[in-house]
Structure formats: C-alpha cells, structure tokens
Automatic annotation (TrEMBL):
CDD domains: Peptidase_G1 (cd13426). The keyword Transferase does not apply. Keywords: Signal. One of its GO terms (molecular function) is glutamic-type endopeptidase activity. This is Concanavalin A-like lectin/glucanase. Residues 1-20 form the signal peptide. The keyword S-adenosyl-L-methionine does not apply. InterPro entries: ConA-like_dom_sf, Peptidase_G1, Peptidase_G1_sf. The lineage of its organism: Eukaryota, Fungi, Dikarya, Ascomycota, Pezizomycotina. Residues 25-35 have a biased composition (Basic residues).
Amino acid sequence: MKPSNLLPLCSLIVLSSAAATPRLSSRRPSSHKLLHTPPSFVAHPGKSAFTSSTSTTQSSRAGVHLSSHPDDTTHLITSIDAFFTIPHANMPTVGPTAGNENGVYQVSYWVGIDGLSACPQASIRAGVDTFWDSGMQTTNVWYEFYPSTGPTDFANMTLKQGDTIQVLVNADADGKGGSVEIRKYETSQPRVSAVWTHEFKDQGSQLCLKEANWVIEDYPLVDRPEFLLPFANFTDDAGVPEVYFYGMHVNPPGAKGGVLPWAWTEFDVEVIDINLEEQGGKLTDCKTETGAGNSNTLTCKRIVGDA
Ligand SMILES: *[C@@H]1O[C@H](CO)[C@@H](O)[C@H](O)[C@H]1NC(C)=O
Ligand SMILES: *[C@@H]1O[C@H](CO)[C@@H](O)[C@H](O)[C@H]1NC(C)=O
C-alpha cells in the first residue's frame, strides 16, 4: 500500500458531544494557516485545449493556465483580473473524505502572474482560503510576491464566503515589481478595496510576464506540510457545487500597462483539474469559455471520481 499523504481525518477530530453544528459563515478570519508553496507545477501536456484533458496525473491544483509562446515578445502579461463569488466551503457528503463532522476541509482560490513552468523564479499572486471547520465557515485573504515576500494576510480586509470580489494582479512593465488589489463588490460598486505594492529588490527574481493563472487549490497546513487538508465541497449561493470566475482579462484596458485585453487565442491555454487518488480521484471538472471583449470565464464543478 502506498503511504497516504492525506491528513488522517481522525487527527483533526475534537471530541465533542454536540450534534452536527449548524452552518455559520463568519467574518472572523480562520486560525488555520496554509502552506502556500510556490506555484511551480509539473508541466502538463495540454496544448490549446479549452476543456481539461482526462490525464490522471496527480495534481492538487485546478483552473486555467495561460502562457505566451516561447518566442513571443509582444504579448507580455502585465495585468490580469477576475471576478468571482467566494463559494461556501462545505463538508463533502460523498467520497472517501465525506462526513467528518468535526474535521477541517479547505479550498483556496487565487489569481497570479508567472511562477509556473516557464517562469518558476518569481510570481505575484493574491487569493482567498476558505475553510469548513466543524461547521464554521471561515475565510482568509492573502497575497504573495514570490520569492521576496511569502504569503501575507491582507491586513484590514476581511471577507466571508458568499462575498463577490474582483482580484487584480499588476506587474511593472520591466517585471521588477507590481501590485495586487482585491475589491469587494456590493451591488455593482466596489465598497472595500485593499492594495499592496512591492518591488523585487534582489536581482534574479524578476517576473517574465509570460504566464497567467486562475487557480483552485488544495493545500496542506503550514505545520503539517506533508498532508493535504481534505478538499472541501464548494457550492454557490444556490447550492450548486461549482465556482464561476468571469471577466478574466489579460491586460484589461485602464489597468497599469494595459493597452487592450489580449485575446486568449494569442496564448497557449491549458485547463487543469485536481486529481488526488486518496480523496477519490478527480475532484474538479473545469471548463473555460470565451466571453465578450476578450474576457473569459472559468467554471469548475466539484466532483468525486467521474461523478
Ligand atoms: C456537494 O454539495 C452538493 C449540494 O449539496 C451535493 O449535491 C454534492 O453531492 C456534494 N458533493 C460532495 C463531494 O460532497
Ligand atoms: C486599511 O488601512 C489603511 C490605513 O489605515 C486604509 O487607508 C485602508 O483604506 C484600509 N483598507 C481597508 C480595506 O479597510
């Protein structure tokens, strides 16, 4: 038998005489800290596929990865964005990780430039971690300027599951710095926005401006790096188990360095899914579609195996 790298569910069990806790969505940040390892992933064989392949490679990451062609010096990626409503993290009710009423389940969502196959040395990312922790739903907001600044909480920005946000990641045209911004939307107006900027000081950690990533990820906790937390079920406000990113642009107009949104057809587009044998196999089913004005959408359904 292969050693399992899934955190044994029993190790998180807290003895409790209480019956199933009602679902509560809290604005209080989570006390759980995830190990946001640098993005670098195993290269996938995908080409210009707008739906994910049926590859069975183990992967803790889902979403869409855009990269410019190796000899393309025109389509530099200096600004990317996306809107999404933060799904509700829930305890799975089917699959091998289902039904641990006193356990912790997790899903993270992030947007970032570089850090993957073509440019592993530097990246800028921002995202949210969502937890279902014995019935309590908590959310952390973070950014990272890798390798200069590890994942850092967005000071004074708290979000809860069900909030609609826009994540913007901007790089300087020379790749030596950038900024991240998260805007919280109520009706159509941004109500709260938090921005962090950073310059890469050390030589050698410069962005290549070649990759854009919109990701859903399963992470381990900082103090248990060898075990992935069980991946939560996630549902939209209507209870549908999926997350929907929209208004996904590469270099949107008005953004720093933005000229026009680059059409996605200028890039290699690769859709990836989470596939973890211990947790039941394929855990997401992602698909991206072209929208208006060179924007795209990404829909990832939460599945177990092929169902
Ligand atoms: C996720 O929740 C939905 C809605 O309750 C349910 O239909 C689906 O089976 C759940 N999936 C998992 C993996 O628990
Ligand atoms: C965070 O604090 C700074 C400084 O006090 C303030 O300017 C900014 O508006 C705050 N942001 C949020 C999202 O509350």
